[in-house]
């Protein structure tokens, strides 16, 4: 069950319902439905606008009823650890065969620094790792990569397995479709 803490964020930011509804482009009645938790869902565009106006993250507004943020617990520590693993992989793997992947590692590091959606970063990174060397068979795709790349995969894969399937479903709009073997394929 998801609890909506929109009222709390509005008080923290000192914005009225009327002002927020105007800025995000929804009616005050629909905003009221969101604030009271009676909404059955929310469009990502609306959530993005709310977060932009309130200068917050979705996890500041949407909280699971057991008290944990929908955004993964220990996210700050996990981001730092992932950043360290990405840095080690970038600095230690110099094989020209992985030059394109090294460019992607820089982009992932930037996304982590910019506090972009952590689950989305992990999904994209897992996909990139699985596609880093397509000459390898699927069963040996990760074990055949340099150790540093395997370390990244082994760090993010258990986290993604803990993410609720409903949360993963929310990421399908990014073009990722989870597969049964714990990998993902990106459809453009």
Care to describe what's here?
There is one protein chain. The protein has 188 residues and is mainly alpha-helical. The protein has 2 domains: 2-64, lambda repressor-like DNA-binding domains (434 Repressor (Amino-terminal Domain), Orthogonal Bundle), CATH 1.10.260; 75-186. The chain contains 10 helices and 4 strands, in the order βαααααβαααααββ. It has helices spanning 6-13, 17-24, 28-36, 44-54, 58-61, 75-92, 99-113, 118-130, 147-162, 165-170, and strands at 2-4, 62-64, 176-178, 184-186. The strands form 2 sheets. The protein has a two-stranded antiparallel ribbon with strand order 1-2. The chain has a two-stranded antiparallel ribbon with strand order 3-4. Helix 6 (75-92) packs antiparallel against helix 7 (99-113). The longest helix has 18 residues, at 75-92. The radius of gyration is 19 Å and the shape is elongated.
Highlighted features:
10 helices, 188 residues, mainly alpha, disordered C terminus, 434 Repressor (Amino-terminal Domain), 2 domains, single chain, two-stranded antiparallel sheet
Would you kindly provide a brief summary of this structure?
By secondary structure, the protein is mainly α. It is built from ten helices and four strands, in the order E-H-H-H-H-H-E-H-H-H-H-H-E-E. The strands form two sheets. A two-stranded antiparallel ribbon has the order 1-2. A two-stranded antiparallel ribbon has the order 3-4.
């Amino acid at each position: 069950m998801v609890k909506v803490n929109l009222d709390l964020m509005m008080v923290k930011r000192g914005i009225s319902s009327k002002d927020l509804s105007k800025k995000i482009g929804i009616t005050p009645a629909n905003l009221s439905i969101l604030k009271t938790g009676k909404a059955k869902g929310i469009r990502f565009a609306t959530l993005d606008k709310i977060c932009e106006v309130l200068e917050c993250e979705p996890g500041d507004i949407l909280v699971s009823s057991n008290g944990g943020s929908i955004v993964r617990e220990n996210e700050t520590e996990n981001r730092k650890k992932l950043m360290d693993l990405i840095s080690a992989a970038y600095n230690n793997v110099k094989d020209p065969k992985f030059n394109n992947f090294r460019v992607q590692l820089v982009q992932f590091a930037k996304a982590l620094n910019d506090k972009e959606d952590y689950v989305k970063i992990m999904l994209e990174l897992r996909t990139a790792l699985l596609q880093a060397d397509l000459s390898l068979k699927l069963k040996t795709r990760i074990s055949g990569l340099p150790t540093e790349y395997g370390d990244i995969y082994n760090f993010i894969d258990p986290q993604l397995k803990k993410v609720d399937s409903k949360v993963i479903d929310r990421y399908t709009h990014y073009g990722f479709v989870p597969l049964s073997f714990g990998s993902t394929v990106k459809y453009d």
